[in-house]
Amino acid sequence: MKKRLYISAGLFIISSISFSQSFIQPNYGLKSHETLEINKVESSTEGTTFYMNIKNTRIQGGTFCADKNIYIIYPDGSREKLISARNIPVCPDTHKFKAPGEELDFVLMFPPLKPGTEWIDLVEECSENCFSFYGVTLDNLLNERLDDIFDKASRGKPSDNIVLFKSFLDSTDSRNLGIEGLLYINIIDATMAEADKVSTIVWYRRLASSNAPRLNQYLKYLNDKGIKY
Questions:
Q1: For the sheet containing 48-55, what is the strand order?
Q2: Domain annotation for the chain: domains and CATH numbers
Q3: Are 32 and 136 in contact (CB under 8 A)?
Q4: Which of 49, 93, 148, 228 meets the CB 3.0–4.6 Å disulfide criterion with 89?
Q5: Helices 180-193 and 158-172 sit at what angle, rounded to 10 degrees?
């Protein structure tokens, strides 16, 4: 929140107050496109803006576009539709990449978020190659904790990571966070790195019987990797 004070002719004039918050590279649970990233989310009383980036790393002459049917989806399943986009063609028009390594920055704009929103999904509904982000975290303190945990995990042993992610899962389970399924997946990955099949099965089944938001998406992710018990 920014408040500006102007002094003129002996009078104190207080400008209108604009409520806004920024989330830099917010954490998320799952995404569809490997090189598609959310650089920033800006939330204000005027609207919600996603600053996006995609990198063309694999295809010579690849293309990308944004369907008009893009939504932010709340934890309760309600949704808000895309209002407008900048620097990205609306399908069927496409942006044509000239070479591998080329990047495209674009912006997606939505209505204001509901008060108290801690996380959302960003989902494109289209006929093919639709993009999605599940569990985009809109809580800066939580994002800092997640950044710290993932940094420690990148340097830790699998056995330590199991304890690390389990502790965080236990401390946040009651909040029904959008990244809950991701915590389970990291525990499952660590048990597999330890070659502990019994624990892998236990944690897979614990995830499958949990109330983790977007549970089917996380199970599909594991199943597509051949992990199913």
A1: 20-24, 36-44, 48-55, 103-110, 84-86
A2: 20-137 (2.60.40), 140-224 (no CATH)
A3: no
A4: 93
A5: 160
Residue type, 21: Q
- In the structure, how many helices (H) and strands (E) does the chain have? 5, 14
Question: Strand (E) positions, 56-194?
Answer: 63-64, 70-73, 79-81, 84-86, 95-96, 103-110, 119-124, 132-137
Q: Alpha carbon of 141 to those of 118, 134, 144, 150, 181: distances in Å?
A: 11, 19, 5, 14, 19
For the segment 33-68, what is each residue's pLDDT rounded down to a tens digit? 989 999 999 999 999 999 999 998 876 778 888 999
Cross-strand pairs, 123: 71, 132
What element of type H or E holds 144?
A: helix 140-155
- Mean per-residue pLDDT, 150-167: 96
Residue 88 and residue 38 in contact, taking contact as beta carbons nearer than 8 Å: no
* Other CB atoms within 10 Å distance of the CB of residue 183: 25
Tokens of 136: 């985009």
